[in-house]
Design brief:
By secondary structure, the chain is α+β, with helices and mostly antiparallel strands. The chain is about 30% helix and about 40% strand. The chain has one domain: Roll (Pnp Oxidase, Chain A). Strands 2-1-5-6-7-4-3 form a 7-stranded antiparallel beta sheet. It is globular, with a radius of gyration of 16 Å.
């Protein structure tokens, strides 16, 4: 994919597969909701979650957004990167409101806004900055594999 195609693909994506490294060297793989900011991908999670423990110890991660049901429909972006934990409450709450809007729609009342703020009180944001990005789009293969 071109850089523009990758950005558009990531903006339209829903599920981010996040692989961090456990203390014993095995991968810890989870699915998260996310946002793109420039070339970085961000997601939020509970501050005591395993992925946070892992990235505080070793910031290397791989994240993946992929789609497609048939081989000729497969598309994806995989990013090997460095993760940084953001625990500033104002930044976490701002992110929470933004991610809520991506997945649920506009926040149109204080009850929802307050609910997001309550969830954010125990969360942090993880920012993944790319070191190496790989993409693929099998629809461009025109049936030639």
């Amino acid at each position: 994919m071109t850089p523009t195609e990758m950005r558009d693909f990531l903006d339209a994506g829903r599920d981010l597969q996040v692989a961090s490294i456990n203390a014993d060297g095995t991968p810890h793989l989870v699915t998260m909701w996310y946002l793109r900011e420039g070339d970085d991908l961000l997601f939020w999670t509970y501050g005591k979650s395993q992925k946070v423990v892992n990235v505080r110890r070793d910031p290397r991660v791989t994240v993946l957004v992929a789609t497609g049901d048939a081989y000729e429909e497969l598309r994806g972006v995989s990013i090997n990167g460095t993760a940084a934990v953001i625990d500033d409450l104002d930044e976490v709450l701002e992110f929470g409101l933004s991610v809520y809007e991506k997945y649920w729609g506009a926040i149109d009342n204080d009850l929802v806004r307050d609910g997001v703020k309550m969830m954010g009180a125990k969360r942090v944001v993880i920012r993944v900055s790319p070191v190496k990005t790989t993409s693929w789009d099998h629809s461009k293969l025109a049936g030639v594999y």
